[in-house]
Design a protein that fits this description.
The chain has 107 residues and is mostly helical. The protein is built from five helices and no strands.
């Protein structure tokens, strides 16, 4: 899926991203912005389960993969699977953000 930058920047002009490594305080920062300014916070961690539910094997094979014993994967297999999960989740989350951005006013 490709969406040109000019379309994304227009559709997501009131969306702010907080990125960083795990345990970097992203959720804490987002919660404080929500408390102080009333921002809506979209949690990619919370939406992950929904992405797995929406997935079908033809379009999202990594999200559709059943792994009963995650610990049995090698490190390389686990990293590759996670990379593919993120790749497949991204369009779902962008669609969510476009929809949500229309529901909330800009600053």
């Amino acid at each position: 899926m490709f969406i040109a930058d000019n379309i994304i920047s227009q559709k997501l002009d009131n969306v702010f991203f907080i990125v960083g490594s795990s345990c970097a305080g992203k959720t804490t920062a987002a919660s404080e912005l929500k408390r102080k300014y009333g921002f809506y916070c979209y949690s990619s961690d919370a939406m992950r389960t929904n992405c797995f539910k929406l997935a079908n094997y033809a379009n999202q094979p990594a999200l559709s993969r059943y792994v009963p014993d995650y610990e049995a994967l090698t490190v390389a297999e686990a990293l590759e699977w996670e990379k593919n999960i993120i790749r497949e989740m991204t369009p779902m989350m962008i669609a969510d953000l476009i929809e949500l951005s229309g529901k909330y006013q800009t600053l």
